[in-house]
Amino acid sequence: MNTGLNREDAKGAIIQRDNDDPELDAVLSSAHHLQLHLIKETNRHSEAMRKTELGFFGRIIGGEATAVCGSHFRRILGVFGRCVVVVHGSLGAESG
């Protein structure tokens, strides 16, 4: 039977692409550009949603990923503030 040969020829034709087919090249190029556009739009949407979730102060202080660093920074700032108050109080007591 010749069906085996016809099947192999058909598979080969599907796998092998003709390089001088401008219509196919245009369609593949268009599909690639559409895929890139969709990826960019998905990334833009994710970024916009993140900005909305964090809000104004969340963007300044940070989100969940930087929560530990932000917590340590606030503690150090609080200790520094207490030191300033103590030093200012002791200077006021010496002058008065």
Keywords:
single chain; 96 residues; mainly alpha; 85% helix
Describe this structure in words.
This protein is mostly helical and 96 residues long. 85% of the residues lie in helices and 0% in strands. It has three helices and no strands. It has helices at residues 3-15, 22-61, 67-95. The longest helix is centred in the middle third of the chain and has 40 residues, at 22-61. The radius of gyration is 33 Å and the shape is rod-shaped. The mean pLDDT is 79.
How would you summarize the topology of this molecule?
Blueprint: H1 3-15, H2 22-61, H3 67-95
Short description:
This protein is mainly alpha-helical and 96 residues long.
